[in-house]
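Lecture notes, structural biology module. Today: joint structure prediction for complexes of two components.
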Amino acid sequence: MATLEITDLHVSVSTEDGPKEILKGVTLTINSGETHAIMGPNGSGKSTLAYSIAGHPKYTVTSGTVTLDGEDVLAMSVDERARAGLFLAMQYPVEVPGVTVSNFLRTAKTAIDGEAPKLRHWVKDVRNAMDELRMDPAFAERNVNEGFSGGEKKRHEILQMELLKPKFAILDETDSGLDVDALRVVSEGVNRAKAGTDAGVLLITHYTRILRYITPDQVHVFVDGRIAEQGGAELADRLEAEGYDRFLTTGEPATTAGA
Amino acid sequence: MSLLADSGPKAHTHSADTLVPDQSRAERIRSWQVSDFEVPTGREEDWRFTPVGELTDLFSDAGDSSSLAVTHELPEGVTRSTVSADEVRAAGVPLPSDRAAAVAASGDSVVVIDVPAEAELTEPVRIRLDGATRETVRSHHVVRVGAFAKATVVVEHSGTTDYTELLSVISGDSSQLTIVSLQDWADDAHHLGQHDVVVGRDASVRHIAITIGGGIVRLNTNATYAGPGGSFEGLGVYFADAGQHLEHRLFVDHEAPHCTSNVEYKGALQGETAHTVWVGDVLIRAAAEGTETYELNRNLVLTDGARADSVPNLEIETGEIIGAGHASTTGRFDDQQLFYLQSRGVPEDEARRLVVRGFFNSIVQRVGDPEISERIMAAIDVELEGGAA
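The predicted structure, tokenised, for the full assembly:
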């Protein structure tokens, strides 16, 4: 079993007016096989948490730690983090012109495993995973994210999760911009990948809709860079009924609620 | 040199005249006579980016012309002959458009490669040119492709030389021709080339310039149409390192109606003083109704200190066209792409290589000759490794 441990994480970004603190002390532990939903209003720091764990250069960790089975994740380069078993499904995946999906997937798989996958099995694995995500086989010969619809981009992200088999997957608003059918297909993909590898999933979302398909073990509510409240799946139901208003109007509940 | 002597020629009326831009691209002089062209000073519109001071030997038709070692691989049916310069000129091939091209054509004889009408070649015609020493070489080649023929012609340049070149490509009616010119010279080679492509009626011609090696390489590619229905595609890839000057100029002259042209050049620059120039001129004359044309130049600047000049020009004399457009972008390496690939476990150097290969891939995959495509990609890999070292 693997453990991803985030302790008192503070993260800043640089702005024209100097550094601005986005995460103001986040503590969170997730184990293999668990699904944690991170919810919260826009600008609460959800995506910052995702990108900070992945190592995006735009974000500066000013204090706190992130460890994966005791190893210091913050000391690793972006690609080392991925090879250690972390995966980030991005909200806005990047176009890579001239690089086909099939070439990209094979290159990533080779990098993660440290050796090239056995060709025959690999081709079959890719085809099966694409089938299950209802992706046309012709997709493999298109350039990465170039001209993809919103739904195609998200399927492609989850396809990577299924094939790269990370220990922990952070899904950054994977549900945004998906219609109900696509949401179901993508959610099934996440559940399949998780069942196959016992991965831990950090599911970042603004809406509760995806939680009908992916059941969280824990729900953390982010407000203003801190965890304002946490609980089980029932917390998501309450958010669905009430929205985020009560967190936004009562000043700073974060200091007490998280403790 | 004194200040006075230096400033004198600049104030001279002739030099001042040359600073006035052409009213139309069509007005430029074309001639077989070297003396019809002044030795460029670098102040002329068409020489303003070129380090002309280092090219004095290439502007002179005095002295002997040495020659490059030539290997021809001619598929069955394709012939090579040597004919007199007078005969070639009388046949009406396009005239030199600058002094270097006139120098290139100043010899007595011309090598002509003929692909017969209706021939469908399964193997490319290969012409390999290799220079052993820095000697002055002038060359005029003609490639003639007969009506309804299908052919690929690959010209490869390597070694070192001071080379002026005129290449005249005449495609017959309804022919389909791909012509690849690979500049893989040594670091000190100089090459001033003019490639003229005459697109036959209903013919499709694709000209692909790949420039990777050479100290100074300047290639002017001019396309004209012998009749309606012709299609010209001008593709290019260049990669400049520190100290290299790689210049590509295109001029597509739409005189016949219902013709199309598409130009797409991509370049990468790496290292201090790496300099690339791309100038794309398109002229749509009054008679060229139904023209469709597009030009694109993209430059990827990989390090500080490199300079990419990119100048698209479009001149339109009739409104009765299908479309005309151009685009030019010069940018730095996209860190978001790098982050995306690295977040999938791909190490940074490999991620960079993947992105740069991808950048060029859209053009390289259209070369249509796997051997050349692989060579280009291998050469790009070498360039990238050189930059990391």
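Point to remember: The interface with chain A takes residues 334-337, 339-348, 350-351, 354-355, 357-362 of chain B (CB under 8 Å).
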